[in-house]
């Protein structure tokens, strides 16, 4: 509750002939009240708007707290700037990044894990966002095999809200293939990062 407010944008509903838009999703931390300002972050958007109301189920409430799934009512004109995978957050508390470093682990082959090389494309599930990312393995490692883990760099198709320590799952060639943890952030909301060089590691390790 003491941390800055953050809610994942999952669904968007225009109301009252477009005069209002309701955004629903899971509140991960902090709290928000009617009248507070929140920032829309992700996919090239960084826009501050004022919350004009909060719904919790069928009730109008004054405040939404971490662990709840509210509907935040925002001015209708911001609807065009909203999409699933963004976040609503305390202004300035989180940024969007198009590339990041991560420690990833591949599942056993029987569970969908498969060999991964530099240039491989993972379908990454980051919060409510789901999008492709191109992988760069560390210098000296040609292939990452199932049941192994390694530090890598991932370059995403679009900039998404990210924080160090965030966990994510990924698919490879249409199958669930593993999971990882974000260890570093590269680039910003203005577009893909210029630097996508992976951290050096001597060799992959057993998960």
**How large a portion of the residues is in β-strands, by DSSP E?**
over 45%
Low-confidence stretches: 189-207
Helix coverage percent of residues?
under 10%
Question: Quick one: biggest sheet?
Answer: 6 strands, antiparallel, barrel
Whole-number average pLDDT?
89
Strand order of the largest sheet: 13-18-16-15-19-20
**Count of individual helical segments:** 0
| Cα distance spanning the termini | 34 Å
What is the CA-atom radius of gyration, in angstroms?
19 Å
SS-based class: mainly beta
Q: What sort of overall outline do the alpha carbons produce when their principal axes are compared? A: elongated
Helix-strand pattern, N to C?
A: EEEEEEEEEEEEEEEEEEEEE
Tell me the total number of β-strands: 21
Q: In words, what does this structure look like?
A:
The chain is mostly beta strands and 207 residues long. The protein contains no helices and 21 strands. It is elongated. The protein starts with 5 loop residues before the first strand and ends with a strand.
Topology:
Blueprint: E1 6-8, E2 11-15, E3 20-24, E4 27-29, E5 31-33, E6 37-42, E7 45-50, E8 53-56, E9 59-61, E10 63-65, E11 71-75, E12 87-89, E13 95-106, E14 116-117, E15 121-126, E16 129-136, E17 143-144, E18 148-162, E19 167-172, E20 175-186, E21 205-206
Antiparallel strand pairs: 1-4, 1-12, 2-3, 3-11, 5-10, 6-7, 6-12, 8-9, 8-11, 13-18, 13-20, 14-17, 15-16, 15-19, 16-18, 18-21, 19-20
Explain briefly what this protein structure is.
The protein is mainly beta and 207 residues long. It is built from no helices and 21 strands.
